């Protein structure tokens, strides 16, 4: 009877602790996945444990569970990297994004036309994420990958959002986003620049985020709601050799075409879209 009483007294505590333990395990597994995602090569158990301050035994168990679902893969040297199942999950999310399905062919056509890498960026959970990209022929083939977060204060896409829909960059109510809140004074400080962006639907970033990189982005709408930014990135030295106004016109035409398709309006009358392929 005494043992039964002791077990009964302990069980509520165990029931309360179990969800916390499960939550902690999920968080650690997520940390492992994000850590491996950021690495350019596979990592050993000791490397992962030291980087995340997790015991090797725990790392081993986490990796075993993740590997059983194909979320991580182990190579012949015993090092781990993200697995194809994780790629499939990410692609599945993107395929359910109507904006990606609509904008992808436009993005590819723009990249073909200008010969540079183009991106679709949108606000998700208070952060700016790369939803899709079309590779150009320049050095930017290793530029931000699909799913990557980009800063909003120093990027062309971020400037568009700050000028046109700053509320989209505020953290969600549940507080899970790590993005810093957008202060109203940040928008007020650049009144003239903000008004110009609002009037033109275009924004530039010249060497502000990455040295040697220039980006022009155009606003993409669904109806009257900003749903993304279509961005063209190129090396800053190359920009000096290109007609910046022509690049703006091509980006703006692509963004307007995307907006028209997303809004169900068909082709934009008198639009310069599609552009001719780059002949350089």
Report on the architecture of this protein.
By secondary structure, this protein is an alpha+beta fold. It has 2 domains: 2-87, Winged helix-like DNA-binding domain superfamily/Winged helix DNA-binding domain (Arc Repressor Mutant, subunit A), CATH 1.10.10; 97-262, 2-Layer Sandwich (Beta-Lactamase), CATH 3.30.450.40. It has 10 helices and 8 strands. The strands form 2 sheets. Strands 5-4-3-8-7-6 form a 6-stranded antiparallel beta sheet, sandwiched between helices. A hairpin with a 5-residue loop joins strand 1 and strand 2 (80-82). Helix 1 packs across helix 3 (56-68). The longest helix has 37 residues, at 2-38. It is elongated, with a radius of gyration of 23 Å. The termini are far apart. Residues 1-20 and 172-178 have low confidence and may be disordered.
